[in-house]
Amino acid sequence: MMEIRTPKTGKAKRVLEKRAPKLVETGRKTLILHGTKTSATVSSVLMELYRLKKGGAIKYSRRNENIRPFESGGETSLEFFSQKTDCSIFVYGSHTKKRPDNLVLGRMYDHQVYDLIEVGIENFKSLLSFSYDKKFAPHEGTKPFICFTGEGFENVPELKHLKEVLTDLFRGEVVDNLNLTGLDRAYVCSAISPTKVFLTHCALKLKRSGTIVPRMELVEVGPSMDLVIRRNRLPNESLMKEAMRTSKDKPKKKEKNVDQDAVRGKIGKIYMPDQKLDEMHLHDKSKGRKRERKESKLLNEETDSKKNKKSSE
């Protein structure tokens, strides 16, 4: 019988609450893994993907012999690493004679493999091979533009699948509003053929246009590569229905110290700190104290005058 372990500390409870399913998803973390054998090209691609996703990615440099996507029993280690790191998308790099410079991109649902797509890397250019003005270099953690050009992304099923996976890989956290000054990068994907896509990373230069919306120019900063589609596996219908299910209830922000009453309506509580009047410093320049001093001075003068009269008599 399987033992069910419950959290015993507050920290463990907060970790489990953070990993629990949410109505509005936070940004997806990416897990980057090495296969049994990797080439120099695959290693540099994985490293540069980790730099582009810095802050939202976890990279393991140890080689993994038990991970074999597209094979039965070869996804157990992937699901274990996904549950351990709480990552919902992964990039797996390998190199064999049959499939050289190979990348497997996949998404997870409930720490189970949702879908897979395998691509080959060609014509790779690293970040260091591009020369540009460093003041236009994109900053870490900024939101990117993602541009897909070509009719293949709408007509070819494999390219449509690749488009969905690349969008989830690069878009980061979903937001409602965006500031134009914070946009400094763009990923451009061009469909060259039904099985090949050109991917490049560019910096955005904002220039004056004479209107409110600035004019944008692209500066290629790398990396860039050609992705050749080899294999793909779509999700099962039952798993897709479960993953696409949404709730009609929108999350409401909890208002602190506010209650609802059927008779009195909305009631709020205000907490005031203890007022230590004994320790408060009172100024001597108050009008009340001046009046008291004048009155006491007059009383003293009257008593002195009465004493002087008595003594003279």
Descriptive overview:
With 313 residues, this protein is α/β, with parallel strands linked by helices. It contains seven helices and eleven strands. The strands form two sheets. It has a nine-stranded mixed β-sheet with strand order 2-1-3-4-5-9-8-7-6, with helices on both faces. Strand 8 and strand 9 form a beta hairpin. The longest helix is centred in the C-terminal third of the chain and has 26 residues, at 287-312. The model has no long low-confidence stretch (mean pLDDT 85).
Task: Note the topology.
Blueprint: H1 10-19, E1 30-34, H2 40-52, E2 57-63, H3 76-85, E3 89-94, E4 102-109, E5 112-125, E6 145-149, H4 152-155, H5 157-170, E7 185-193, E8 196-207, E9 215-233, H6 237-244, E10 258-261, E11 265-268, H7 287-312
Parallel strand pairs: 1-2, 1-3, 6-7
Antiparallel strand pairs: 3-4, 4-5, 5-9, 7-8, 8-9, 10-11
Subcellular location: Nucleus, Nucleolus
Biased composition (Basic and acidic residues): 239-249, 275-285, 293-313
Family: Belongs to the RPF2 family.
